[in-house]
Design a protein that fits this description.
By secondary structure, the chain is α+β, with helices and mostly antiparallel strands. The chain has 13 helices and eight strands. The chain is 42% helix and 11% strand.
Length: 422
């Protein structure tokens, strides 16, 4: 358990966790299990999900851990998951500095009462790659002023939280002065990246259109196959040769997939059908999937074109949800309204309009309609009752979404490498 000053028992909210946690009675709060301390939050983008942030900081100094966990809980309550993880990441710098400081000077910082104005000055210099505390923050170099400032300010926030807390104020009896300008106006050194020139944007759109011609043709063919009553699915326990015809293979796979079976389960129950998707002389699984679903790669042009129209913040774009798509308040069904959720200094929603029934094949309205036809079906195979707009099939027959923009980056780079953008 996170220890306190000797002779002072842990307060009720620091006893127990999940099962013996404290918090709002819904499983959230600080979970303490021996030396393992974690903070449990509700996941703001999904109902009934939790996020666990491990407080693996300040090793060997439990007096620092408990208040730090409470600070993380208080600060991260209304944040999105990535921002909460950043708090832990930033505090990790302070944790490492205290280890380096102790090794360098032979003075261990074990309590908040050990923290001084001079120590925080040394910490800021260490972040910059200066001062006498070694090893350096990045082993060799320091951080830019503009990068070091929010780390320093978060540690400042931690100490101010402890000092102002009714529960923990006795731990920081000393006066501490903080640096009022830890960035040293480092924003002046930022080199802004210029926007893409018009010619480059046009080239990107052309590359998207070129790929989508193939993707839409495949998906429309897949839809027509599923709607064709003259294509009959043979006995599912038949040998592979019964599914050799491409149209039959697609319809049989789609029928079996509707049972919610994984590819491993399909292989076990219907080995003939699974063998029929192993490639020549039969169809292959990837080709079958491309006719039924957007793939992780083929959905990239759709994402890019919609982003050019809506201009959402990247993570907001990835988390667009059908539950927040509706008719326009002013124009009814002739126009749609897509609402994105984000958290930046406060939870908010931002709505963007689009025209439905546009004659252009790859207009925003038509892209959304194709997603409505295809992606809503794909979402059935994604866990947790998914209603995300950008759902896709993977090469191995599993399905997913892009939780954050960082998960989208790898396939975006694939698009950039292969697309004729010049």
């Amino acid at each position: 358990m996170a220890s306190r000053r000797k002779g002072r028992p842990p307060s009720a909210h620091l006893r127990g966790g999940i099962p013996g946690a404290f918090g709002g009675g819904d499983g959230t709060g600080v979970d303490i299990d021996g030396d393992d301390v974690a903070v449990v939050f509700r996941e703001w983008t999904r109902d009934a999900l939790i996020q666990i942030v491990r407080v693996d900081l300040f090793p060997g100094t439990p007096d620092l851990v408990g208040p730090c966990a409470m600070f993380l809980l208080a600060r991260g309550q209304e944040m999105r998951p990535g921002s909460r993880n950043n708090i832990r990441k930033y505090l990790k710098y302070f944790s490492r500095f205290l280890e380096c400081y102790g090794a360098c000077y032979g003075i261990r910082i074990t309590e908040y009462s050990d923290i001084s104005t001079q120590l925080l000055e040394d910490f800021l210099e260490w972040l910059w790659g200066e001062g006498n505390v070694v090893p350096r923050v990045n082993d060799v170099d320091g951080l830019a002023y503009i990068t070091a400032a929010p780390i320093y300010n978060l540690v400042k926030g931690l100490i101010e939280f402890v000092k102002s807390s009714e529960e923990f104020a006795h731990l920081v009896p000393q006066i501490i002065e903080f640096d009022p300008n830890p960035s040293r106006k480092g924003y002046r050194d930022i080199k802004h990246v210029p926007g893409l020139p018009e010619a480059h944007l046009v080239a990107i759109r052309r590359a998207c259109f070129s790929e989508l011609e193939v993707t839409f043709d495949q998906l429309e063919k897949g839809l027509s196959i599923l709607e064709d009553d003259q294509i009959n699915v043979p006995d599912l326990e038949s040998d592979a040769v019964a599914f050799k015809q491409f149209e039959v293979c697609i319809k049989a796979y789609d029928f079996v997939a509707s049972f919610g079976l994984t590819m491993a389960e399909i292989s076990q129950r219907y080995p003939g059908l699974r063998r029929s998707m192993n490639g020549q002389p039969y169809p292959n699984l990837q080709t079958v999937l491309k006719h039924l679903h957007f793939t992780r790669r083929s959905i990239v042009p759709v994402v890019l074109l919609l982003q050019m129209h809506f201009s959402y913040e990247p993570d907001t774009l990835m988390n667009l949800d059908w539950k927040l798509e509706e008719d326009s308040f002013l124009y009814g069904s002739r126009r749609g309204k897509l609402t994105g959720e984000k958290y930046r200094g406060g939870y908010s929603r931002k709505s963007k309009p689009y025209v439905r029934g546009d004659k252009r094949r790859f207009s925003p309205g038509n892209l959304i309609e194709m997603l409505r036809l295809i992606s809503t079906k794909t979402a059935r195979y994604v866990p947790r009752d998914c209603t995300r707009i950008f759902c896709f099939a993977r090469r191995d027959g599993t399905f997913g979404t892009f939780p954050t923009s960082s998960h989208f980056s790898p396939v975006l780079y694939e698009f950039i490498d292969l697309a004729p953008l010049k």
